[in-house]
Amino acid sequence: MPGFQAAITIHQAIERINRNEFLLPAFQREFVWSVGQIEQLFDSLMQGYPISSMLFWKVKEDTKADFRFYQFLKKYVEIHATHNDTIATNGVNDFHAILDGQQRLTALYLGLCGSYAFRRYYGSKSVHSEWDYPTRHLYFNVSSTFTEEESDRKYKFSFLDKAETKETEIYLDEDEKWFKVSTVLDLYKNDGLDDFTETHQLTKDEKKLIKQLERVIHTGLIINYYEEDEQNPDKAVNIFVRINSGGTPLTFSAILMSIAIASWKHKDARTELNNLIDTIRAKGFYINQDYILRSFLYLYHKDIRFRITSFKNDFISNIEANWENIRNSIISTFDLIKTFGLTDYTLTTNNATLPILYYIYHRNIFTDFSTKVAYKQDREIIKKWLLSILIRRTFGGQTDTVLAQSRKAFTNDIEKIKIANIQLFPSKEMNKEIKKITDIGDDFIEELLMTQKGTQYSFPILALLYPNLDYKNNNFHQDHLHPADSYDDLSDRDKLNYGWTVYNSIANLQMLDANENMSKNDSPLKDWVKKETKKSDLNQFLDNHLIPRDASIELSDFEDFITKRKALLTAKLKSLLN
């Protein structure tokens, strides 16, 4: 019968996790708690605070085959190992699927049985190594507690690096003793606290704190839960959605993704999506479930907005049936964007890639699109369009509206795709459909020209101005025309009138081939131009590098140079953007 069941201890819950009697349904989100939240949970338990009741779904009979289920995480590594392992449930005994309580139970399990690795302060974000992401275990300070002035916590719990603790049961840090929390499981089972105290020469107060932790884990009836036993998967999903839709930690898109994942019939949706996210991450870009959901809607649904009613069975079945092509098209899209020289930092919105994805996918040209000679003209059109869109910041704000408008360049009827009649990426048609696309004025151009070197928008601006460099192999540099080292040599008047903000802006920047920039080697602009034009046409060189022919390139004439170059760039950008 459904209803509240007899409460159990934390230790009993841990044992059930170990026996795979507590599992996670496919529509559950992944673990998202930080180490601080886990440490605070253990502090709350030690202070006797309740941790709220949980909701379990008793899964039995044929229902076990209706959903995919996952085991609890035991070794969590930030970014790199956050995915739960699937478990085959055919032929196993009945078990409970956790509808509400996953974060708390996982936190308890990691603290008592597992480890949590997060990035060292100077560690690499992309490299998964023990140095960058050291394995940490939960320890409990049995020598001291916080005062009210120090913290809102009382008890000191902390995830400590195993390289420092050597995973010892008692870790000595100067005059303080840290107790490895997982030790409490074996101590209680073997009734060994007295011997442990003697072996490690613990004081009476230190033993008292460990005894208190023992009571919390082994005897306190802390895990209260409501059990739902009706074997109706749709009801389980609805319960999950209703519980989580009221809280802010779980976003609306996460709920939609939960429904989508739960409804795939033949493929392991979570694994497929995680693999795609990891593949794109390996290319240097970061996408999330919001992007994937929006991709589904943009490719196949008349309504691009996030709505539960959009994710009906027929829509999700269509997505699953075409998943391989969708996945490959997303990969192809980011392969293409990488050849433009863009990075996750300079690709300021992933939403701007969706029209490109739509085009590549529905034309069925995703195989080697970024490299085939046959698609060269297409790539050039897409590159110019994307850089312009990023510079204009078109997809900021009302994203749904802009996306819906952009898709009209392909078709007005999403159920009757006419993309086959389009042979080149329809950038002009798309810009006509997007109501936010208007002619660029002087004020906006002036703002663009003041963009600083190395910021998110400096690359797309310079890449648009210098389209013929090797961006595919990242063989380019953002370079000061008047070198950065020469700024201190400016006259006091020029420093006062222009300052570093102008000197370090697009107005004094160019994009150079990396080899050419190394040859330039911070030479004064006048000397560099003279050297490079000994055997070549001066005017052609100046034009190629967007240096005004009639401007003085002496540093002492910085005012003349910057005024005329801004005029040249303004005309160029207006032409390109309008």
Nutshell version of this structure?
Helices cover 44% and strands 11% of the residues. It is of the alpha+beta class and 578 residues long.
Written description of the protein model:
It is a single chain. This protein is α+β, with helices and mostly antiparallel strands and 578 residues long. It folds into three domains: 223 residues, no CATH class; 183 residues, no CATH class; 117 residues, no CATH class. It contains 25 helices and 15 strands. A seven-stranded mixed beta sheet has the order 1-13-3-7-2-4-6. Strands 10-9-12-11 form a four-stranded antiparallel beta sheet. Strands 5-8 form a two-stranded parallel sheet. Helix 2 crosses helix 3 and helix 5 packs across helix 7. The longest helix has 20 residues. It starts with a strand and ends with a helix. The model has no long low-confidence stretch (mean pLDDT 89).
Structural class estimated from helices and strands? alpha+beta
Mean pLDDT: 89
Radius of gyration: 30 Å
Q: Please outline the major beta sheet.
A: 7 strands, mixed
Strand content: 5-15%
Biggest sheet: strand arrangement: 1-13-3-7-2-4-6
Q: What count of domains describes the coordinates? A: 3
Distance between the termini: 68 Å
**Approximately how much helix is present in the residues?**
40-55%
Low-confidence stretches: none
Number of strands: 15
